[in-house]
Amino acid sequence: MLSTYEAADAIILALDCTRERALEVVAELEGRLAWAKVGMTLYYQEGPSIVAALKERGLKVFLDLKLFDIPFQVGGAAWAAAKSGADLISLHALGGREMISKAVEGVASLEAEDPAKLIAITVLTSMNHETLSSIGITSTMAHEVERLAKLAIASGANGLVCSPEEVGRLRALLGPDALLICPGVRPAGADKGDQKRTATPSEALARGASKLVIGRPIMAAPDPREAFDAIVKEICDAS
After folding, report:
1. CATH code of the domain in which 81 resides
2. Number of domains in the chain
3. Which has more confidence, 74 or 124?
4. pTM to 2 decimals?
5. Residues acting as catalytic residues
6. HEC letters along 169-210
7. Helix, strand, coil % over all residues of the chain, rounded to 5
């Protein structure tokens, strides 16, 4: 059975909101929350200062900018993201081997004692088979996820972002030490929103997820602390 600490450490809170709201919720969850995700909405408003603010509050930061550009630009962006203090940085595996390798070089050039880890996105959790078909990808979802996962890891990525539907297959493929992060996680009974391939927190962890990205079920709750604690309890009870 997972301890309360272990269950809480598995949750990465998605702060897709204003700086004021982000810091308000972080303050409410002080002593509970270990990880926060800063995505495009918040980062494009605040820049590196929001990463610094969260680090000052003792949090680890997943900077989820989904880097995807020519290799030169992504190498520079990965360097800048790592320099901001981010612990995890996301990029798209679709960018290919050279792009991912340049990102690895960018992070490594800082020569940090505990360097940021690069996490490659396979297929967004808002996509399904019909979405893939509409952009000309005719292989199955499972095949596409596995293909991109192998490419990313071979190119130097430290882990993967994948949906709860694929995490079990990737765990079996990559072994027990792979860092697998699952967005699209929703507590039992919660609204799925725009996510297509979802699971509950306990289901995702049982299938092999390392970390869970959870946002709206906590951020939009009347009492974020109560919502967070309920998810932690759900994970502990099911483990």
Report:
1. 3.20.20.70
2. 1
3. 74
4. 0.91
5. 66
6. HHHHHHCCCCEEEECCECCCCCCCCCCCCCECHHHHHHHCCC
7. 50, 15, 35
